[in-house]
Amino acid sequence: MAKHSLSTLEAFLIFLLVMMTAVTVALLSLLFITSGTIENHKDSGVPVTQSPPTTPGSTATQGSTLTHGSTATQGPPVTTTPEPPLFQNFSGYHIGVGRADCTGQVADISLMGYSKTGQNARGILTRLYSRAFIMAEPDGSNRVAFVSIDIGMVSQRLRLEVLNRLQSKYGSLYRQDNVILSGTHTHSGPGGYFQYTVFVIASEGFSNRTFEYMVTGIVKSIEMAHKNMKPGKIFINKGNVEGVQINRSPSSYLWNPPSERARYSSNTDKEMIILKMVDLNGVDLGLISWFAIHPVSMNNTNHLVNSDNMGYASYLFEQEKNKGYLPGQGPYVAAFASSNLGDVSPNILGPHCVNTGDSCDNANSSCPIGGSSTCIAMGPGHDMFNSTQIIGGIIYQRAKELYASASQELTGPLAAAHQWVNMSNVTVWLNSTHTAQTCKPALGYSFAAGTIDGFGSLNFTQGTTVGDPFWDTLRDQLLGKPSEEIKRCHKPKPILLHTGELTKPHPWHPDIVDVQMITVGSLAIIAIPGEFTTMSGRRLREAVQAEFATYGMQNTTAVISGLCNVYTHYITTFEEYQAQRYEAASTIYGPHTLSAYIQLFRALAKAIATDTVANLSRGPEPPYFKQLIASLIPNIVDRAPLGRNFGDVLQPAKPTYRVGEVAEVIFVGANPKNSAENQTHQTFLTVEKYEATSATWRIVHNDASWETRFYWHKGLLGHSNATIQWHIPGTAQPGIYRMRYFGHHRKQDFLKPAVILPFESTSSAFEVVTS
């Protein structure tokens, strides 16, 4: 298919757009001192080299070129919390679970995932949570922590700050080797918590407000799990989930060897692995599930913060186990964590041209009219909310079945291994005589095309293997030319952005990356710093399991935990890389990235299996930038209309609603981002039912409930409205109800600092009837 050529007008408009973006970044850069603004290691550029395997299935540990770095962050003096005595005379593990809110801003911030200009937060559908699980051996000698977080991905800055605060409170109990932070990869959470320039630009600046909210929530969930530890048992189970996935790059998958593909019945990983946690009396404590699916049932037209399909599965499971509690409350914690989801979509109706209805499941994901911008995959529901419920509901139901039948107990020691690695300079042993190198980070042309789950905004298509003179010239003039070395290293990727060679105002992509693994008995949890495709994940799991088997651990189950510790985009197989679809163009360290990770994780597996973790080199510590580009959206004073107060009702509820209808009230609003600073209220809304017997109002829903929606409508000069909706479910009891609004407004008197003040309001009562 011929590529659509740019008209003179299109070219001129695009040139203006890019120039405006470049000028904006340049001006922002001038606001910050870029020298001496990071604390990091002296040897961040040291190459990473491993010796070739000496025997099949064995891998040497890191060579002497990796050295210990200095502390990445300077925290307050350590005030270690005393460790409570642990009951030791039992078989199993000490288990602690905890859940805490980490939502951050729900307005005036970009949603992180689609990188779509204008897709900013304008309210909330569900809260975002950090769910922590701590496991310790009976004598307390070893422990590990796994944390699943309802965010797009874990940023390096987020992880470093969380570890710093844990060290301040617990000393060396929770460290970079035994704490995994994993993002669920919802594309409907706030951005703004990154330090590398590509992600800062995508987030339209760094939001310390959201960053602090997230860090506090993650740390709080770990503190709760630490306090709640009790003797218990862990059971593992596995099973396939049907009808919720498609491979969104099937033509890339076909580049993998036919003999390899013949070993699998599907081009997606259908297997779900669950851990069931109970105390010694059999009382349920928690669940961790790993399953490969993109949480993109909520598409790029959405503006409500939410946890998408995997979060909906958590919501259903926790509501089932925490009966009588509001969402986000109760002792039971259920995490639905990400896995090798790189090329896996929940939009199971597949890609179709929205203007003709024809399939566009081709190598370029392009339509005859409109190109890639009209090739979109749809979910099974009548809208994105319904699709989220359908996909999340199936995942929940399968996890519930596996949980109920879980009988294989996990036993054995706990172990953890971690290294920081300079991924831009890893020597990869292809065999005993030949090596290859990873590359400095770079993004290819097809990165800008987006995917069938969310297309790019400019005229790019997937599968592009040749650069365009227009874009190359524009890039060279604005950012400088990529070196011949980086172009040669990334072939056949045509480089759009040579991010590994861009350093202003800070490096555009990370060089130093975490590789980490923890084991719980016979289960190995591989913490990957990005999005592995289906076949990449299969190869990694197979290699890790083979490495453990080589050293006597034949029955190891390896599970991939995605979006951990630092974000590095995608990881395809070498063969998929040749196709240069979106995932390959986003494999930032070049065609041998997967081979490098396999080599590194095999080294961790060997160290755990041979009890030589202490001999692993720590590696060069990552930087922690002190000064970042602030949010481009200013803080302004909130104003109520003349004669009105914040929270006044502008549109009241109707007197009566039937089950299945939507109750709606509109209030005089204030910017919801204020509530991420002043957390006087823990919810933006409640739905309350009048109990005649006690003459009290009982809360039946909050803003974490799937049935409620909070919309914020931004006006001019600080004016805004807030709309609260209750989608009345069929399970609602007839009776008298009301809705309440909780907010914060920013006030600033002349020559005085701004203050954020709480307010609340209540709707008129209304009746819900069944018919």
Number of domains: 2
Mean pLDDT: 91
Q: Helical stretch count?
A: 14
Helix content: 10-25%
Principal-axis shape: globular
Low-confidence stretches: 1-18, 20-49, 53-76
Cofactor: Zn(2+)
Domain Neutral/alkaline non-lysosomal ceramidase N-terminal: 93-599
Transmembrane segments: 12-33
Binding site for Zn(2+): 185, 294, 531, 570
Describe the protein in words.
22% of the residues lie in helices and 27% in strands. By secondary structure, the chain is an alpha+beta fold. The protein folds into 2 domains: 93-427 and 506-615, no CATH class; 648-769, Immunoglobulin-like, CATH 2.60.40.2300. A hairpin with a 4-residue loop joins strand 12 and strand 13 (284-290). The chain is globular. The termini are far apart. The model is unreliable at 1-18, 20-49 and 53-76 (pLDDT under 50). Pfam families: Ceramidase_alk, Ceramidse_alk_C.
List the SSEs and their pairings.
Layout: H1 8-30, E1 38-39, E2 48-49, E3 93-101, E4 107-112, E5 120-124, E6 129-136, E7 143-149, H2 156-170, E8 179-183, E9 189-190, H3 197-202, H4 208-227, E10 230-240, E11 246-247, H5 250-253, H6 258-261, E12 271-279, E13 284-290, H7 308-321, E14 333-337, E15 344-345, E16 350-353, E17 375-378, H8 384-405, E18 408-409, E19 414-422, E20 426-429, E21 435-437, E22 443-444, E23 450-451, E24 454-455, H9 469-479, H10 484-490, E25 495-497, E26 512-520, E27 523-527, E28 531-532, H11 534-550, E29 557-561, E30 570-571, H12 574-579, H13 582-585, H14 593-609, E31 624-625, E32 649-651, E33 656-658, E34 662-668, E35 685-691, E36 696-702, E37 708-714, E38 720-727, E39 735-747, E40 755-762, E41 766-769
Parallel strand pairs: 2-20, 7-8, 13-14, 27-29, 28-30, 33-41
Antiparallel strand pairs: 1-31, 3-6, 3-10, 4-5, 4-9, 5-37, 6-7, 10-12, 10-18, 11-15, 12-13, 16-17, 19-26, 20-21, 22-25, 23-24, 26-27, 32-34, 34-38, 35-36, 35-39, 37-38, 39-40, 39-41
Catalytic activity: an N-acylsphing-4-enine + H2O = sphing-4-enine + a fatty acid
Active site: 345
Binding site for Zn(2+): 185, 294, 531, 570
